[in-house]
């Protein structure tokens, strides 16, 4: 049985809408207004304030801006990392170079992709099959996951932004990405031809080596070549002069950053409530990564209340929290408010939106997935010690919310936060023990393999 949209049925729909005064009023408002802005509840805005019961000692300055790029996962990591570093160095403001890690991610990610294309051939995956087609759709995205930034920092270290500043293609990645996409698809065909011919490892390695030399040239032209060593000169809050270096970025991380922020001591917890993905187990996603020989992307799946408690505990102890979420839902962007009740869709459209399905059903039916990474810097706890609201440092500049800081209700956290990262000292032993089990592999197209990439 199927429904045909006959002229009579369309006329019935039209007459119904035209008889509804609320629909006509909403139609008039939408003529010149963003539908989401029209639905914002004034009462919720009036009840919102950036006052919190627990807050990290000092927040990072300046507010960062990823601009037209999908580097939020890198920005969020470096924004968390800079807080203890600023305190240690007694700085007024500071940024790590996001472009530095982005450069190495592009290089490593292209190499990872090409090696996966070789693996797919050896696994018998046809180029028209779902897996290879999915991977070829976007072979070099900007977005990433926590374990990917761990790979980059562990291998390449970090450096101050002043020593490797932004370039046009770091802030506006579309053109560079399209060049790389074209080359990676071309290289995939070339690799399959080499493998079809004789499958010789030496021939494959020779082909990959040449291909990556061309990738390195493209990325270097777009982003610049990071210095192998650098010297950092700066004034502290007391206006005293300091000089660090010359040293490599990895030496800078190991000697000056790692003592206050050891990225390998951080634990990534996720909330995936789908019935088939049991809590208390670890998962990974097929072909998801950014570095050959790097850390595997691992998800420790836990109930959302565990994530909220661990994030609260970290903030109570003065440590900010990296997290991944679906940023676009129930979000009043200009005001910087994330709250399930911020939009009154029912009054405007006669139906509710976003929360008619459960969090699990939204994942199952393609209505939800992680899109963006930010950091928590404050939380308000009620008399029972449970979180009520959160302060969020974003990486979209100062134009959103309170000079770049958003406010999130805990009802929004439960529905749209999928991932947090805290120091393992805040994680119960029984949760840590889950990492000792073998991960369950989800398919490459599973929504838990989504990459944090959203920009303003």
UniProtKB/TrEMBL annotation:
Residues 170-197 form a coiled coil. It catalyses: Inactivates bleomycin B2 (a cytotoxic glycometallopeptide) by hydrolysis of a carboxyamide bond of beta-aminoalanine, but also shows general aminopeptidase activity. The specificity varies somewhat with source, but amino acid arylamides of Met, Leu and Ala are preferred. It is an enzyme of class 3 (hydrolase). It comes from Petrolisthes manimaculis. The keyword Kinase does not apply. Keywords: Coiled coil, Cytoplasm, Hydrolase, Protease, Thiol protease. Its EC number is 3.4.22.40. GO terms for biological process: homocysteine catabolic process; proteolysis; response to toxic substance. This is Bleomycin hydrolase. The lineage of its organism: Eukaryota, Metazoa, Ecdysozoa, Arthropoda, Crustacea. Its main location: cytoplasm. GO terms for molecular function: cysteine-type aminopeptidase activity; cysteine-type endopeptidase activity. The active site is at residues 72, 372, 394. One of its GO terms (cellular component) is cytoplasm. It comes from the Eukaryota. It is found in: Cytoplasm. Belongs to the peptidase C1 family.
């Amino acid at each position: 049985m199927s429904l045909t949209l006959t002229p009579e049925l369309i006329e019935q729909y039209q007459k119904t809408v035209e008889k509804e005064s609320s629909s006509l009023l909403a139609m008039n408002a939408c003529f010149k207004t963003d539908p989401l802005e029209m639905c914002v509840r004034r009462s919720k805005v009036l009840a919102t304030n950036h006052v919190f019961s627990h807050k990290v000692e000092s927040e990072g300055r300046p507010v960062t801006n990823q601009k037209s790029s999908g580097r939020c996962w890198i920005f969020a990591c470096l924004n968390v990392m800079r807080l203890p570093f600023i305190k240690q160095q007694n700085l007024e403001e500071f940024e790590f170079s996001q472009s530095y890690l982005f450069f190495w991610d592009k290089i490593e990610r292209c190499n990872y992709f090409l090696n996966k294309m070789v693996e797919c051939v050896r696994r018998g995956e046809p180029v028209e099959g779902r897996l290879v087609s999915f991977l070829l759709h976007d072979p070099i995205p900007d977005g990433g996951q926590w374990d990917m930034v761990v790979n980059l920092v562990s291998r390449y270290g970090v450096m101050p932004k002043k020593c490797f500043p932004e370039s046009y293609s770091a802030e506006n990645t579309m053109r560079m990405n399209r060049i790389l996409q074209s080359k990676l698809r071309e290289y995939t065909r070339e690799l399959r031809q080499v493998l079809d011919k004789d499958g010789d490892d030496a021939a494959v390695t020779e082909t990959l080596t040449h291909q990556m030399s061309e990738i390195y040239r493209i990325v270097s032209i777009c982003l610049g070549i990071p210095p192998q060593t650098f010297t950092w000169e700066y004034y502290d809050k007391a206006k005293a002069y300091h000089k660090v270096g010359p040293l490599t970025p990895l030496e800078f991380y190991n000697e000056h950053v790692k003592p206050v922020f050891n990225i390998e001591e951080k634990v990534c917890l996720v909330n995936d409530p789908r019935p088939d993905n049991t809590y208390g187990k670890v998962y990974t996603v097929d072909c998801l990564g950014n570095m050959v020989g790097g850390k595997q992307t691992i998800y420790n799946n836990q109930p959302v209340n565990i994530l909220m408690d661990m994030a609260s505990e970290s903030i109570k102890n003065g440590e900010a929290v990296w997290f991944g979420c679906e940023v676009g839902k129930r979000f009043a962007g200009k005001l910087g408010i994330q709250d399930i009740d911020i939009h009154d869709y029912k009054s405007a459209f006669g139906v509710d939106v976003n929360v008619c399905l459960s969090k699990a059903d939204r994942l199952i039916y393609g209505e939800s997935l992680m899109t963006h990474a930010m950091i928590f810097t404050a939380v308000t706890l009620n008399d029972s010690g449970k979180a009520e609201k959160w302060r969020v440092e974003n990486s979209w500049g100062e134009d959103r919310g309170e000079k770049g800081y958003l406010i999130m209700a805990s009802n929004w956290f439960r529905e749209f936060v999928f991932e947090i990262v805290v120091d393992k000292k805040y994680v119960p032993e029984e949760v840590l023990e889950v990492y000792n089990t073998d991960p369950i592999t989800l398919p490459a197209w599973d929504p838990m393999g989504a990459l944090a990439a959203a920009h303003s």
